[in-house]
Write a structure and sequence with these properties.
With 171 residues, this protein is of the alpha+beta class. The chain has seven helices and six strands.
Length: 171
């Protein structure tokens, strides 16, 4: 059991170790789910039916109110790396919190059903998916970011993500 492993390396008794395991197993995932519930719908899903222009306007308004940048993430439900990115962010509660304290996320669908070509024509071409664009609070594009830049040994890197977050964190 995990609690016996924890007991070996801490001064916790068996019951304290069990409580600690329970907290990390059951309570923390609910906190992330609750935090996810507070996100706008345009931050949660690549929906081919959504209007990225309207979502962008709403995101810009929220960014201005909360002193954050807008991060436009282009991808789709078909994109395995998009799912890996979501899972990566959710796996680290502090990274997840810092990411959403720095950015208002707008997910923009690109698929056969809706390529959002009209919306994306003003952006530099994406090198792959997911691809990120950072805008200032006025909507000007200030960075185009290939998410492959976050990879180390074919996995997303917490260190590289924090470098990115810290670059754009409000000062």
């Amino acid at each position: 059991m995990y609690y016996s492993f924890i007991m070996k390396f801490t001064r916790l008794n068996k019951y304290q170790a069990i409580v600690l395991v329970a907290i990390f197993t059951w309570v923390l995932p609910f906190n992330l789910a609750a935090a996810d519930d507070t996100l706008p719908i345009y931050s949660k899903t690549y929906d081919p039916k959504r209007d990225p222009i309207q979502d962008g306007i709403a995101a810009l308004k929220l960014a201005q109110e909360t002193n954050r940048h807008v991060l436009i993430e282009v991808g789709g439900d078909w994109c395995a790396w998009c799912h890996r990115l979501d899972k990566f962010l959710r796996a680290d509660q502090q990274l997840y919190t810092d990411f959403f304290n720095t950015f208002v996320l707008v997910k923009v669908n690109v698929s056969e059903e809706n390529d959002n070509k009209e919306f994306l024509k003003v952006f530099p071409p994406a090198k792959g998916y997911p691809h990120m664009y950072v805008t200032d609070k006025n909507g000007s594009i200030i960075e185009s970011k290939d998410t492959a830049d976050f990879l180390v040994n074919k996995r997303y890197s917490v260190v590289k993500f924090y470098e990115f977050i810290n670059k754009w964190k409000a000062k």
